[in-house]
Amino acid sequence: MSLLKFTIKRTIHGIVVAWAALTIIFALRFISPVDIASALIPPDVPPTARESLIEDLGLDQPWYVQYLRYIGGVVQGDLGYSYVSRISVNQLAINRLPATLELAVAATLVSVVLSIPLGVISATNRHQVPDYLASFFALLGISTPNFWLGIMLVLLVSVMLGWFPTSGREFGFYEAMRLLILDGNRYGIIQWLYHITLPAITLGTYYVALLTRLTRSEMLDQLSEEYVRVLRAKGLPETLVTFKHVLRNSLIPVVTVLGLQFGSFINGAVVVEVVFRWPGMGEFLIRAIRTVDWPVIQGTLIIIAITWVTINFGVDILYTIIDPRVTLEGESE
């Protein structure tokens, strides 16, 4: 199978998955126990005004009419208007999405910085004290709920020690870099790092365990390969063998899983953003749920779902390019 055919096949698969996700998101509104009209309209409003508002929102139309209009809007890139603010969901999401992406990227960096060294230490010190300590630390990370870790960091590091702010942010990454490049002012980037550190640690440590165990497993597999014995027989230093050859060959599956986990970072950011009042999609979604603002809820979930599908598609294509040992059909040639 050629790369073009593989790409087309994956594209069709991604479209089907995206359509299924959109349908499930649409169905959530009809299985929800909350009546949208009752949540939006005060009980003392006259029946005529109530019926008029329901008609304006299109809630009086049959479900299949609403579904077709909903799918048509998504295909055209129109996510509708907020019931509460009457502002375009597209505009609201554009203002919120960068903050979530910033947090996801920062959490990914935290995971990489912690997990790969831990995985290398575990593999090169198998069944020794460093291996047990690294495994314990990784297990502790995945066993700790994000919201609890975030609250503890706020209480200990922010409130008691005063090292970092408790919530919010002063600058986005774009504004901070623009200030640095155009004016040479480092205040913006320093403040951005100052505010994103605790949320990134809170979100990133949860995925350290998976990447650590994967790095360790791949390193052990590579260390048992014939080429490692050949390199050692040639007299190459152990550090060079470990980091230049073994670790490099072990990172291909790690990169693949890391790409897939990036979508999980976006999903997991919901709770972390609420704890730290980070102005991203997660806090945006929780606020919409509280006010039963369904266009905003649907729009946020749609963006998350499409982002997830896109990341998976990109990882599939990237994996076939960076690892020539894997055929496009997933079988040995």
From TrEMBL:
CDD domains: TM_PBP2 (cd06261). The keyword Coiled coil does not apply. Pfam families: BPD_transp_1, BPD_transp_1_N. GO terms for cellular component: plasma membrane. Keywords: Cell membrane, Membrane, Transmembrane, Transmembrane helix, Transport. It is a multi-pass membrane protein. The chain crosses the membrane at residues 12-31, 103-124, 136-164, 192-210, 251-276, 296-315. Residues 97-319 form the ABC transmembrane type-1 domain. It is found in: Cell membrane. It comes from the Archaea. The keyword Cytoplasm does not apply. SUPFAM superfamilies: MetI-like. Belongs to the binding-protein-dependent transport system permease family. This is ABC transporter permease.
